Write a sequence for this structure.
């Protein structure tokens, strides 16, 4: 990954974490509800991985928002 991509993934991860925390859902429960691994969610929230579209859809569904709303800056 280049620096620009890393910054983008960090922004997405921070937004996901912020939205999850606003709903007062802990990481472990949220990952379980979204049917993804807790470690995977941790890596996404830290911006350390490139999440697949299906994973982003699951997260958006778990947050009860559209994927475009989740990705909006």
């Amino acid at each position: 990954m280049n620096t620009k991509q890393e910054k983008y993934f960090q922004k997405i991860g921070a937004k996901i974490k912020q939205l999850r925390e606003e709903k007062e859902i802990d990481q472990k429960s949220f990952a379980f509800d979204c049917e993804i691994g807790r470690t995977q969610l941790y890596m996404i929230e830290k911006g350390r991985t490139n999440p697949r579209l299906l994973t982003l859809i699951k997260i958006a569904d778990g947050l009860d928002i559209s994927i475009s709303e989740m990705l909006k800056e």
Observations:
- The CA atoms of residues 18 and 25 lie 10 Å apart.
- The chain has a mean pLDDT of 94.
- The radius of gyration is 11 Å.
- Helices lie at 3-22, 27-34, 38-45, 53-63, 67-71.
